[in-house]
Amino acid sequence: MIRPRAQRVVLYSIDVLTIAVSALIAFVARDLLPFGDLPATHLSSVAQTAVLGVLWIAGLTAFGAYATRHLRAGATEYKRVITATAAVAGAIGITCYMLDISYPRGIFLLWFAVGTFGMIVSRFTRRQVMHRLHRQGYLQTPVLVAGADHHVDEIARVLRRESWLGYRVAGAATHERLTETATGLPVLGRLDDVVDVIAEHRIDTVIFAEGSFKSPAEFRRLAWKLEELDTQIIVVPTLTDVGSHRLDVRPLAGLPLVDVDRPQAINAGRWIKRLFDIAGSAFLLFLLAPILLATALAIKLEDRGPVVFRQPRVGLKGEEFYCLKFRSMCVDAEARLAELQSQNEGAGVLFKMTNDPRITRVGKFIRRFSLDELPQLWNALRGDMSLVGPRPALPREVAQYDSDTMRRLDVRPGLTGLWQVSGRSNLSWEDTVRLDLYYVDNWSMTQDLMILAKTAKAVVGSDGAY
Predict the structure, then answer these.
(1) pLDDT (mean) for 119-126
(2) Which of 31, 71, 296, 381 is the most exposed place for a label (fewest CB within 10 A)?
(3) Whole-angstrom Cα distance, residue 140 to residue 1?
(4) How far, in whole angstroms, is CA 231 from its chain's centroid?
């Protein structure tokens, strides 16, 4: 485990190095820009750059870019770097203009542009390294989960599943005198003794679930005690699967009111997403035309059967359409499905087999890299599907949906989605539904772009594909 102070030292060191290297790049590359009024090697420019570098670090600190609470997940860390840099650059520009201070404009522009990009990339790289280490069990933060028994188990289950966050559940604190919870999580003490439990077991983070406090005053007094232990406090509200962009905390007379924006399924059907689907699918069809042609030729040469497989799927608002895929199975695959049902490895209503005997040799290859799904770009262009959305379901699967799962049909199904970048076939049915419902309720154009960016990594790595 890395202590918060050590994490801040690492961040400061990385940013100082990034700013210094980006300044050097700016001095060297400055002559490529057509403006500037001082030589790049002018001694005063070097001295000014050193001063401005210190101001840059100070601005990052003032805007909370080194707050360890935002280092594990979310875009807040990146936003603060960009906001702080823009504020510092603006303040420097205005000050230089008002006081008639000369500083090479070419160096200024290159330095802040390269430096900002470098800090974003370095933070992203640090996160990826830490996530990998966390998944392998290294540098994890011990966590105490406090609250009612069943809520504690639910939070512990999520933290174990999302191991990349780096939280190791050390135990629980409940109202009852127990030795362990229903799922076997050790109970380290009662909620009344939570301060002593944290001190004894050297807990760095405590998560308070529902049922932890009898009154706001009780929480306030407990927070005072934990202040002396430098323990991070996380309170889990009753809200789940709500995107941060839909939440707005509004303090009112001492009450932290949470304003929750309405679900976004309607916005996911607006013209901007449809326009993006048309432009994106048309561009990808043109770009991937050679791959489409080569795949079609390989399928045809293997067994002389049809190249494209047309299968009825359920789309927006329950309307059926023919989903197009490159054929990856033998011609009589549907007829042989009944005899393989006893070997189904899929979750819930899905049918999956790791070594499905119906898959052809070409089919194994194109499935591994999801080439079989490329014809669905035509479905996206037509409007049957979207580039990003829930998994397109079969009619027989929809017939088994409960009322909550039917919510998946409120947006167009997608070629990719949260389910694909989060594990694909490795996910349980419950997790697949949870991710799809989260996407429907919390849709945003930014999220679509992030999913598309992550899809390439998931496909190239063939994560969970078979």
Answers:
(1) 92
(2) 31
(3) 5
(4) 26
- Strand runs labelled E in 327-419: 386-388, 414-416
pLDDT of residue 62: 92
Report how far residue 127's alpha carbon sits from residue 74's, in angstroms, rounded to the nearest whole number: 11
Q: Are 301 and 380 in contact (CB under 8 A)?
A: no
**57 Cβ contact partners less than 8 Å away, ≥ 6 residues apart:** 12, 15, 16, 19
Structure token digits, residue 156 = 């512990």
> H/E element holding 28?
helix 4-29
Tokens representing residue 188 in the block: 């380290």
pLDDT at 466 over 50: no
Cα gap 206→226, rounded to integer Å: 10
Instruction: State residue 358's pLDDT score.
Output: 80
Contact 30, 106 (CB under 8 A): yes
**Separation of alpha carbons 318 and 299, rounded Å:** 32
Q: Find the angle CA(20)-CA(26)-CA(27) to the nearest 5 degrees.
A: 95
Q: Quote the percentage of the chain above a pLDDT of 70.
A: 86
Q: Which fold has domain 141-240?
A: Rossmann fold (3.40.50)
pTM over 0.70, yes/no: no
Pairing of strands 232-235, 205-208: parallel
CA dist 94 and 87 (Å) reads 11
Helix (H) or strand (E) holding 279: helix 271-287
Instruction: Tell me the DSSP string of 84-111.
Output: HHHHHHHHHHHHHHHTT----HHHHHHH
Q: Are 314 and 391 in contact (CB under 8 A)?
A: no
Average pLDDT over residues 228-246: 76
State the pairing for strand pair 320-326/386-388. unpaired
Distance CA 177, CA 156 (A): 19
SS3 state at 350:
coil
| Averaged pLDDT of the chain | 83
Span 261-312, pLDDT tens digits = 778 888 777 888 999 999 999 999 999 999 999 999 999 998 888 899 899 9
For 195, the token pair is: 């301060």
